Amino acid sequence: MLKALLKAESLIALGLMGLSVYFMWHAIERPIGWDGARGPGGGAFPFWLSLIMLGASTAILIRAVRTELRVPDLKPFFEPGMIGPVAAVTLALTITIALMSWLGTYVAIPLFMLWYLRVFGRNSWKVTIPLVLGTPVVLFFFFEVALLILLPKGITEPLFFPLYAMFF
Amino acid sequence: MEVLSLLAQGFGTSLLPLNIGIVIVGVTLGLFIGAMPGLGSVNGVAIVLPLTFIVPPASAIIFLAALYYGAMYGGAVSSILLGIPGSSTAVATTFDGRPMAQQGKAGLALIAAAVASFIGGTISVILFTAFAVPLAELALRFGPAENFALVLLAFTTFVGLGGDDAMKTIAMICLGLVLSTVGLDMISGQPRLIFFDMPGFFAGISFLVLAIGVYGIGEVLWTLEKSRVAPTVTPARVTWSEMRAGFAAAGRTWKTMGTGSVMGFFVGMLPAAGATPASLMAYGIAKSTSRQPETFGKGNVEGVVAPETANNAASTGSLLPMLSLGIPGSPTTALLLGGMVMWGLTPGPMLFIEQADFVWGLISSLYTANLAAVLINLALIPVFVWALRMPFSVLCTLVLVLCIVGGFAPDQRMHDVWLILVFGVVGYILRKADYPLAPLVLALVLGPVMERSFRQALIAAQGDPTTFVTRPLSATFIALAVLFFLLPVFMKLWQRRKGSHPA
Amino acid sequence: MPSRFTRRAALGVAAAAALSTALPAPALADWQPSRPVEMVIMAGQGGGADRLARLFQSIIQQEGLSRLPFMPVNKGGGSGAEALRYLKDNEGNPHIIMATLNSFFTTPLQTDLGVDIEEFTPLARMAVDTFALWVHVDSGIETLEDYIAAVNAAEGSWRMGGTGSGQEDSLVTALLEAEFGITHTYVPMGGGGDVATALVGGHIDSTVNNPSEAMSFWQAGRVRPIAVFTDERIEAMADIPTFAELGHPIEYYMQRSFVAPGGLTEEQQSYYIELLRALNETEAWQNYAREQALFTDFLYGDDLMAYFIEQRELHAQILASMDDPS
């Protein structure tokens, strides 16, 4: 029984159930009932929909446990040996996004590309270097100069003052 | 015909060398903005609007119209090549466009999309030319009850019973609808579902954030895990024969194109609806009227053609209430409207009388912009397809960078970038467990209009829920919605009966 | 500090004396932005506030009032709650200014944001938008008496359209109800344009739209203004009486001002004030304001802050008199 609950299908259903309860807990901050002359209150939509979601995910959980007890699924959820790369990319993205606010886009993005292309993707330097150096230039001209969208610079902002003066 | 002579005069304006140049620049810029995941026509128009004050109003609106068209074409590019819908109007294009690209038919899909967009744009401009003023009156009859019924219909034409695991579909629809309620409740003016008290949630969760997360980051993670098993992207090349095959394939779908164009135009015209429901409904109709509905979602070219004709037709349709009534049907047309006001033009019923030159100049420029858009798009297809031939790790890097920067750009919030990462990882896991993601994304797109119009209709009717079935238009749409929802069930029953009585 | 202040003042006088509008005065200020300025808009793309902010941006660019561009950024979430928090979190950042509307007062009063608008740096008030009471021409209502009678006859089911509970038009509706002892069913429709459209389509019975939102429908003979909520008649609609003339002195305005985050130096503040003053004097802006029935009383600095505090007081009173909006 416990083993059946620990399978991916059951764990995801449990996660969704938890999420619905969390949503419902938030939704009850607003009225969830039907006010005669004005229809449903502000919390009604999220509350009742979360309740349906809770019902659906409970049904998925029950079904998963029953199937598992009858015919245990031996296939692993993740492809063997591939969970490492997926986790590595996720971690790299997390670090990159964190660095964007602190050291700025133009430091974070090249670092990410350097890691992905050279270390993770094992591309040659001939492919890596032009991409790592070229992408920030393209980003700057497309977003900042052409579209007037400033990307986050963090503490590297002062370095861009001369560029602003030149291109705006 | 008075209309024709007015239109001829209009071409006199739109075919000036300055204006032709403007159309080309506008379309090209629009194409790239639209092809960028995260940016769509609304960003393009917002960004360029202030720059248009240096040219005469007629040229300015032509530039914006060209940009608008270009962006609508461009949306299909990112949907097909990257599987990331660049805007909500291009969601339906990913359903079959992405599988086609994975089968090495990216060129074919892009050509079909371009041709479909052109046909949709052209048919709707003709409808526009002929019926602009009387049709605008029809749009006015759509109140909250009708809007609710229409959105419901759009939803059910796509998500019927059957197909995927029903429980998982229901869970995903509910999740999407609940996420769509995050932020300010417009009816009561109170904030709700502000998770962890983070101010970023006050603005709600944008569709783009979920789409970029799920289809961008989630997709890369998915391919990464599978890539040692089998590469998902088959390199495509564009040859003349493939070009011809693309046109031929598009030509065979003329029925779908016709339905998509006319429906797109009418739905696009309605202020609260617009291009997104139009493209979904076109997809749903194409699928349910097809002889092989099971091939949809697996790379059927009709699944690209239907939403692309409809969303381009709808983008023309939404100009109609803006010009003839001064009612913007979408954020983009609202900005165009703002531009016109700044140029000293007052959109509304008087515009066609007082500013006939301007109006017909604009309408004729829609013809030229559409033509320019299809030609420029076709010319660039080899470039787009070439991008797919990059080594897999290079493509992944660029997609991830585009996801991060493109997710930041529309509202310039780091909060959104973090959400994209969360949705990417969650979407990846859900996808592995066979949860359908399209209903989740659609629910987030349609949820806000659905809830708002439902509650508005009830308030206006003093809380009486029969308002939805006593108003003729709304009742019709609701009946159709129920029919579409149950259609797969009927089909199964019918097939079973047919199976038991072999002919 | 005093010496620097004098030098700036002297420069200002010299500039004013020596130059006409040809050269923008801010070019001589002590402080200049070193990066493009973010113009935060307290509303989403396409709304009235957004259109106005983008108009300002384009005039600034066209007239060369600033060397570096102003970049509009929409932070409309939570009726401006998001924008207010953003400004608060960027205290002391001189490269952000915010285009405000009345949610600048009402949002902090209704939601606990930890934001005190007195901490922001007041720049300048560019315009004051006006409100009028509108009905559909088919309703046959021509005077205020007709209107009151019709609302009373509907026994509470009269549908007044607005943008959302707690928004400006719901406050105007509350003022109307308090003055005449009537009740409406307030239907939130979203944006000002949606409200005007719903009235033309007959999905609601009346609105308190800004004149700019309903003007074209009036000219086309679809809707009719009954009275305006101003102290004197509006130039663009001179035949329409004010409520005060009809014996019911109800007034309400929508202010359109610029503020900056708190903690700016005096040089930084005065740079923006001078820039906005130059903007206010452009012909493009004055023409636009006249056509759209906006009043353009330029108010800046401390006077503006005094106005903000007074307005906040007023809004607190109106909100307190309203029923709980949820």
Explain this structure to me?
The complex is a heterotrimer of chains A (168), B (503) and C (326). Chain A contains 7 helices and 2 strands. Chain A is mostly helical and 168 residues long. Chain A has 2 domains: 2-70; 83-167, no CATH class. In chain A, strands 1-2 form a two-stranded antiparallel sheet. In chain A, helix 4 (83-102) runs antiparallel to helix 5 (105-120). In chain B, helix 5 (91-102) runs antiparallel to helix 6 and helix 11 (254-269) packs antiparallel against helix 12 (275-289). In chain B, strands 1-2 form a two-stranded antiparallel ribbon. Chain B is 73% helix and 1% strand. By secondary structure, chain B is mainly α. Chain C is an alpha/beta fold and 326 residues long. Chain C is built from 11 helices and 12 strands. Chain C has helices at residues 2-18, 48-62, 81-89, 103-110, 144-153, 168-180, 192-200, 211-219, 266-280, 283-291, 301-321, and strands at 37-41, 70-74, 96-99, 121-129, 132-136, 159-162, 185-188, 206-207, 223-228, 254-260, 294-295, 299-300. Residues 1-27 of chain C have low confidence and may be disordered. Chains in contact: A-B, A-C, B-C.
What features would you highlight for this structure?
heterotrimer; A: 168 residues; mainly alpha; 2 domains; 2 strands; B: mainly alpha; two-stranded antiparallel ribbon; 22 helices; 73% helix
